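Exercise 3.2. Students should predict the tertiary structure of the chain below and write it as structure tokens, then compare their answer with the key that follows.

Predict this chain's 3D structure.
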Amino acid sequence: MIETLVKPLNKPYCTVMGIINDKCQRCGAIIDSHDFDGFGRLYCRECLAYGKIADTTIIYRCERKITVKNHKIIMPFVLSEKQKEASCFVDDCLTQRQTGFLHAVCGAGKTEMLYLGLFNAMKKNERICIAIPRRAIVIEMAFRLMEVFPTSVIKPLHEYAKNDDDADVVVSTIHQLMRYYHEFDVIILDETDAFPFRGDAFLHRLIAKALKPNGVFFQMSATIDQELAKMIHRKTIKTFTISARYHRQPLDVPKIYNVMEMKTMIFGNHILPEIINMWLNRHLSEKNQVLIFVPTIKYGKLLAMIMQTKGFSTAFVSSESTDTTDVINRFRLRKVNFLVTTTILERGVTFSNVAVAVISADHRIFDLDTLVQICGRVGRDREFPHGEIAYFCEELTIAIQRSIKYIKKMNQRGNKEGLLDNEMPNMR
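Answer key:
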């Protein structure tokens, strides 16, 4: 059901008070009995940014109409045998209403493995949501699904797009699920361990509220956080792992470059350390596209400016950017060679042929999961199955060491399972 604070026009609806038994009916938070506003009303602090919910607030709930359609599927390519196994695993979980987790290395084709399950669920007129932490990835996945399911209605939901009319599948940022109450038969959470969902009780409650009581919650990611690891160990969740990419080439292993006083040179002197400058110039001469990850927005703006003054064709995107989609498209069209970015592009976005650099890879924001996801930006295309990854750092952190260990472990597992054709190539 759709929830609104405004009385629906020409639609049957039911009502519920905003707070019942000290529980917010919009976000599920337990209200402190001392949280009164200036009018003496008990109210919810946790979802206050989305409009006040008080004990006198009326929430309207109404049905979202979906017409029956003749669903068709157009597969973009033939799945590998392992992908077919994973696809059947997803379909089985959705059919049998079992919580499942698809653990697949970056670039293994997780989205493509959903198609069979989505198709069969739509044929049963089930309501489906694919929840994704970040808006840019929501938009990209929605367009991919539109091409695969041409007769179905697929709609993206995010801060600037709210229309879910007649949608068989909504691809939504997690925050938009606040609008729903027991609406979806299936919720698939992509990048389940990503910021901001990881460790956020507020977002966990929104998913639980949007799912029907008999609905199925399915998760997928290339990395496993502690919560998921415990569930897998206790066997409370069905799991399927794919340790290699569909093109049967091993994952690229990062190379570490030790750069002394890097932050001092960049922030204090506004210069590029020579080893970074040489690395960038080599890729410029080879006409390579390069994604450059930085730990903070301030860092990224400064680095992009320094690179531009040195003649590198450079753009920058972050969570503050209002033109993210345009900048990404310019990079894809090779109108800029270097794209400096925060971790906003660590997941979900696919580029055909890129190299990756992580500047100040020893910064605390670059934990194990983040570094593994960043490394997964290279080698995603069958035509370009490998790409160079460079960690530029002043110290060798545990996260750096573990990310390299994880990648090597997946390559070893993929080789053992017969999923790889070649040994790891020698990267410069």
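Discussion points: The CA atoms of residues 157 and 172 lie 4 Å apart. The longest helix spans residues 398-416.
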